[in-house]
Design brief:
By secondary structure, this protein is α+β, with helices and mostly antiparallel strands. The protein has one domain: Hypothetical protein YwqG fold. The chain contains 6 helices and 12 strands. Strands 6-5-4-2-8-1-9-10-11-12 form a 10-stranded antiparallel beta sheet. Strands 3-7 form a two-stranded antiparallel sheet. The longest helix is centred in the N-terminal third of the chain and has 16 residues. About 5% of the residues have low confidence. This is DUF1963 domain-containing protein. It comes from Micromonospora jinlongensis.
Length: 284
């Protein structure tokens, strides 16, 4: 763990103890810390991806239905930067649309595969349309730079029975999530730096929230989320497997817009990216 992240967790410990949370509970909470990659447009770390731009896909691949949100160079990610079984090389392509009821998908192009550049704007999202042009203007093409980050559970509660048991790592302590959010807002190179304009993408970790819920839980349990009436790609019967947050994108829409790509760990390991589920939360 980097000295930066040790310092962040020390701040969490100190703030929790200041709030009179028992030390044993604090240490149990800190054991849930997971490595994650924070990709920003204002950092000084190495370039590991790009926001937006035209996708590059194999000649026999179907044209994407949704705009490219970000492409990640897996070979540029240091080993252990997340605890996910990400590919060691190749390009991870995240597609979606940061609007209410948006969809998306994940594609992976292995290293060495011949690719061709596709149209930057899918026909269903024409840039000449004012509705879409406003969104495109808010996510211009830009390099993504890496900060090796650390993550803790972010939401206070999750739905209990009869919907499902909690997924591994869901927070047992409401007060500790409040501590984590307080500390996270003050990290100078963290996801909320520069008023949130610097951080665009998270890889791995717990992420933030989908309307107050753990995004991995909602992706795994679309029918168990009583407040959820939007689409979930890959929806169906609840599946309580080891669902994880693959990536989370923060757009700059009025009120905030977040896209979550979630997947089962086994599918990620086997490169079954078509099994990913996509959530879009927009708070206009």
């Amino acid at each position: 763990m980097t000295s930066r992240n040790v310092k962040i967790l020390d701040q969490v410990r100190a703030e929790a103890l200041r709030r009179d949370i028992p030390a044993a509970d604090v240490e149990r909470w800190l054991e849930l810390a997971r490595p994650s990659a924070l990709l920003t447009v204002m950092g000084d770390g190495p370039v590991v991806g790009v926001v937006h731009g035209p996708p590059k896909l194999p000649a026999d691949a179907e044209d994407p239905k949704y705009p490219l949100i970000a492409s990640i160079d897996c070979a540029a990610l240091p080993a252990g930067v997340t605890d996910l079984p990400l590919p060691p090389d190749g390009q991870l392509l995240l597609f979606g649309w940061p609007e209410d009821n948006g969809y998306g998908e994940v594609r992976y192009v292995p290293a060495g595969v011949a690719v061709e550049e596709r149209e930057q704007y899918p026909s269903s999202f024409p840039p000449e349309d004012e509705e879409y042009s406003e969104v495109y203007a808010e996510m211009p093409q830009h390099d993504l730079r890496l900060t090796v980050d650390v993550s803790l559970p972010y939401v206070e509660t999750i739905p209990g029975p009869p919907w499902s048991p909690p997924l591994p790592g869901d927070p047992p302590f409401e007060e500790m999530t409040k501590v984590w959010r307080t500390v996270l807002r003050g990290v100078p190179d963290g996801m909320f730096a520069y008023g949130g304009y610097a951080a665009r993408l998270l890889l791995g970790g717990y992420g933030t929230e989908y309307n107050g819920f753990n995004p991995a839980w909602v992706g795994a349990n679309p029918s168990g989320y009583s407040c959820y009436d939007g689409p979930v790609r890959g929806g169906g019967p609840p599946d309580h497997g080891d669902w994880v947050l693959l990536a989370e994108f923060h757009g700059l829409r009025s009120g905030g817009a977040t896209i979550h790509w979630v997947i089962q760990r086994a599918d990620l390991k086997e490169r079954r990216f078509d099994q990913a589920r996509v959530l879009v939360y927009w708070n206009p």
